[in-house]
Amino acid sequence: QVLLVESGGGLVQPGGSLRLSCAASGFSFSSAFMAWYRQAPGKEREVVASIRSSGSVYYPESLKGRFTISRDNLKKTLYLQMNSLKPEDTAVYYCSAMDRGFWGQGTQVTVSS
Which sign, positive or negative, has the C-alpha torsion 99, 110, 21, 18? Predict the structure, then answer.
């Protein structure tokens, strides 16, 4: 059974940090092209960061410098370190195995004072 389970979301003040985790099981995590997406209310889902099995990463220009994606293949876990958070980062964050079509259930991130 394929599972992607996100954790680490919550309420944080503007300027704060959060680290999201995504625990994977049921498929070959180390060879998967993994990504984080987010979806804010009333908006389309957008990619936040991606990381290939080679370790090559991608960020949209608007998020470069604040977000860092990483993976631990031994732990089968994907991470997203988010710094200098802004209210506009508020969204549900999803983990995805992009080349497999697998998605997690999402974790809510709310940035508010």
Answer: positive
